[in-house]
Write a structure and sequence with these properties.
Blueprint lengths: L2 H12 L3 H8 L3 E6 L1 E3 L15 E3 H13 L3 E2 L2 H9 L8 E8 L3 H12 L4 E5 L11 H11 L2 E6 L2 E6 L3 H16 L3 H14 L4 H8 L3 H8 L4 E5 L12 H19 L5 E3 L10 H10 L4 E7 L13 E5 L7 H8 L2 H6 L9
Parallel strand pairs: 1-5, 1-12, 2-3, 4-5, 5-6, 6-9, 10-11, 11-12
Antiparallel strand pairs: 7-8
Helix pairs in contact: 1-13, 3-5, 6-7, 11-12
């Protein structure tokens, strides 16, 4: 995060401006989203290049306690959908907890915390994680950048070189290469992965074995009514990089397989890479017209309003960043202050 953004957030967290925003921009509640949960870091421990996607387990518990103390109900996606359909149902503001992809720590670290506090949560599963076919290139890339002083990668006919000796150089290289991956077609992504793995002697399979939930663990989670298991495509592809038939297959095959494994219906979906660069009207229409889901969520920042009843397949969420582990910052999101600033004072975020 840039120095300016840090200063702005620090200023807003002590200035009572959130009380002006909350009545207008706080909405009915918020859908929070996370990825990995990690053990609490020791003082002086190396900061991960994936820090934005990692939250410490103690802070996760603090969030649960904080939202309840401040009058929010923690509800499931089913309950949130029902509230949108029936505006008089539930008077308290709500928070929905969601986790993307299907990391093993959602079971080993997050689940015990939610169980302890009897709080519901959702895991959006991308099937290639438990199928052990996922290419978790982002953690492989992190290791390569930490081990090398300079790396190179060929993109089509251009050789791109990145220095990574200093922390700032590592961060810059990571962001640049991550963007190359996100904007590449599935076939081009595989080529980039093979390049990096071969050149820097990495086993991409080792990362999925270490990081991903298994079907056995997913089945155990499914037996607890606190846990909602939802779809996130078969292979976590960028949906607008493939044709509509391939995109629909990614979405529906994921749903069918999860349902066959857990013997329960899957009613909810999250778009992989859900920003305006990857998800727009065609992708949302594909999910809505399938008739297979109650809701679908993006990664656009915003709170949930009653009017989202007509946009249940393009619901915004709020990412809780590992680099922002302060409850005062969380409150700026829940109050709608930061979403309002991000969205240029637009209240209801859909597409």
């Amino acid at each position: 995060m840039s120095g300016f953004k840090n200063k702005l957030i620090n200023f807003l967290s002590v200035f009572p401006i959130k009380f002006l925003f909350r009545p207008i921009y706080g909405g009915e509640g918020s859908i929070l989203f996370f990825h990995k949960v990690v053990e609490n870091k020791r003082s002086g421990e190396r900061v991960s290049l994936m820090e934005a996607n990692e939250i410490e387990v103690d802070f996760l518990e603090k969030i649960i306690l904080y939202v309840r103390k401040n009058g929010y109900q923690i509800i499931s996606l089913d309950e949130m959908s029902a509230r949108l359909d029936n505006p008089g149902k539930g008077k308290s503001k709500f928070v929905v907890f969601t986790f993307d992809d299907g990391y093993i720590d959602n079971y080993t670290l997050a689940y015990p915390v939610f169980k302890k506090h009897q709080a519901p949560f959702t895991i959006y599963l991308t099937n290639c994680f438990p199928n052990r076919s996922a290419k978790i290139w982002w953690y492989m890339l992190e290791d390569i950048l930490l081990e090398q002083e300079e790396i190179s990668i060929r993109v089509r006919d251009e050789l791109r070189n990145f220095r990574c000796k200093k922390p700032k150089e590592m961060e810059t290289a990571f962001v640049a290469i991550r963007d190359l991956f996100i904007n590449a077609s599935p076939n081009d992504q595989l080529e980039l992965i093979d390049q990096l793995a071969g050149k820097y002697n990495k086993s991409i399979m080792a990362y999925v074995e270490a990081e991903a939930l298994s079907w056995n663990e997913i089945e155990k989670l499914s037996s607890d009514p606190l846990v909602t298991l939802a779809g996130h495509t078969m292979n976590h592809i960028t949906l607008n990089k493939v044709n509509s038939e391939e995109a629909l297959a990614e979405i529906m095959d994921s749903k069918v397989e999860i349902e066959s494994k857990i013997q329960q219906e899957v009613f909810h979906f999250a778009y992989p890479f859900g920003t305006r660069n990857e998800v727009n009207e065609p992708e949302v229409a594909l999910v809505a017209e399938s008739g297979a889901f109650k809701t679908a969520t993006t990664t656009r920042m915003g709170n949930i309003f009653k009017s989202h009843v007509s946009a249940k397949f393009a619901l915004p969420r709020i990412q809780v960043l590992g680099s922002q582990q302060k409850l005062a910052i969380l409150d700026l999101y829940l109050s709608g202050t930061l979403p309002a600033i991000k969205n240029k004072l637009k209240r209801v975020v859909t597409l």
